[in-house]
Design brief:
The complex is a heterodimer of chains A (114) and B (114). Chain A is mainly beta and 114 residues long. Chain A has no helices and 11 strands. Chain A has strands at 5-7, 10-13, 19-24, 31-38, 42-50, 53-56, 65-69, 75-79, 88-95, 104-105, 109-113. Chain B has strands spanning 3-5, 10-14, 19-21, 24-26, 32-38, 44-50, 56-58, 64-68, 73-78, 87-95, 101-104, 108-113. In chain B, strand 7 (56-58) and strand 8 (64-68) form a beta hairpin. The chains are: A mainly beta (114), B mainly beta (114). At the A-B interface, strand 4, strand 5, strand 9 and strand 10 of A face strand 5, strand 6, strand 10 and strand 11 of B.
Chain lengths: 114, 114
């Protein structure tokens, strides 16, 4: 596609439910990143994919968070048993090869946990 | 550890006035540096980047930034601000040996007075 696409744009869920957030990167981009933007913590790195592998998962805040990438393209971030502190905007970015290359961001998914 | 500091949380300037947003970084090698802008409800848009070479870099929308190694700074400037520049601005360092993940500053919110 022309840019990074994220869905849904907004998600409201109840505490304890599982949610899946989707990211469709720019076609041909091998590197994909997830970040979280929250009022208290600013913009935080969550996980990095190179192809379908995730060499850096160091930013995932707990084992309730997981992510996968299939076919070197679409990625899904899953949050199990959501908590109120998970409320944030989840941003996805992609770049052509990783390293120091420019990352292009999607518009984000705003997650609200009630 | 790598870090980025944006000392000013909120800045207000008059339309037509000059602008400088401050950014200081901590990084053990030559950094990859970025400035991104975020308008309400939008993802991050790249304004400019520094990888190497000329320490004064030009970006989109009339912005420029200067890399000063001795001061560990990468300040963003614009000679004449337009009302449409009101947004949040983020400075970031790319961690090259960790897949290029971005470490962001806390952001500076810019308001423009008519």
């Amino acid at each position: 596609g022309a840019g990074v696409s994220q869905s849904p744009s907004n998600k409201v869920t109840e505490k304890g439910k599982d949610v899946e957030l989707r990211c469709d990167p720019i076609s041909g981009h091998t590197a994909l990143y997830w970040y979280r933007q929250s009022l208290g913590q600013g913009l935080e790195f969550l996980i990095y994919f190179q192809g379908n592998s995730a060499p850096d998962k160091s930013g995932l805040p707990s084992d309730r968070f997981s992510a996968e990438r299939t076919g070197g393209s679409v990625s899904t971030l899953t949050i199990q048993r959501t908590q109120q502190e998970d409320s944030a905007v989840y941003l996805c970015a992609s770049s052509s090869t990783g390293g120091g290359n420019i990352q292009y961001f999607g518009a984000g998914t705003r997650l609200s946990v009630l | 550890a790598q870090s980025v500091t944006q000392p000013d949380i909120h800045i207000t300037v008059s339309e037509g006035a000059s602008l400088e947003l401050r950014c200081n970084y901590s990084y053990g090698a030559t950094p990859y540096l970025f400035w991104y802008v975020q308008s309400p409800g939008q993802g991050l848009q790249l304004l400019l980047k520094y990888f190497s070479g000329d320490t004064l870099v030009q970006g989109i929308k009339g912005f420029e930034a200067e890399f000063k190694r001795s001061q560990s700074s990468f300040n963003l400037r614009k000679p004449s601000v337009h009302w449409s520049d009101a947004a949040e601005y983020f400075c970031a360092v790319g961690v090259y040996n960790q897949g290029g993940k971005l470490i962001f500053g806390q952001g500076t919110e810019l308001s423009v007075k008519p």
